[in-house]
Design a protein that fits this description.
By secondary structure, this protein is of the alpha+beta class. Helices cover 32% and strands 35% of the residues. The termini are far apart.
Amino acid sequence: MSVNVNCVGGDTHNVFVYGSLLADEVVHTLLKRLPPTTPAILHDHHRFKIKGRVYPAILPVHNDKVNGRVLLGLSGVELHILDEFEDDEYTRTDVEVFLEDKSEKMQVYAYVWDNRNDPNLYSEWDFEEWKQIHMNDFVKMTNSFMEELESPESKPRVQTYEAFYKEEKDKPLQP
């Protein structure tokens, strides 16, 4: 059974997430709410680590799969916030995911890495590892991004990310 409830051009949107947006804290920081979610699998894609980044990328890879979840019922404004957050490194793409709890397919959006031949992509990105090592700083960076987004002269998310992580790197180590 295939269900299309993405409502492209309609009032609500559904987005497959597979990286930092698996963390409720990041989603809440961006959207100021936690939308309903459902576990999902995106077939024929792989979740890569990105050299020099703490977040992942997905690209089509035959016979591979990415576990994630679908954020359900997002408004146009919320979708715009995610578009800005993903910046120009990703392309919002229509994909079909398999809903684990309903055993059916759904057409949704996913943010796919824009550079298919990026030499900085490698290995498999691990959410649990990211949560332990990077989530707290990433939530702080996301807060900075939202403050920037709401200001009249906002910077793109990649610029906010790079500035935040440069500041963190430049801080003296605590004993």
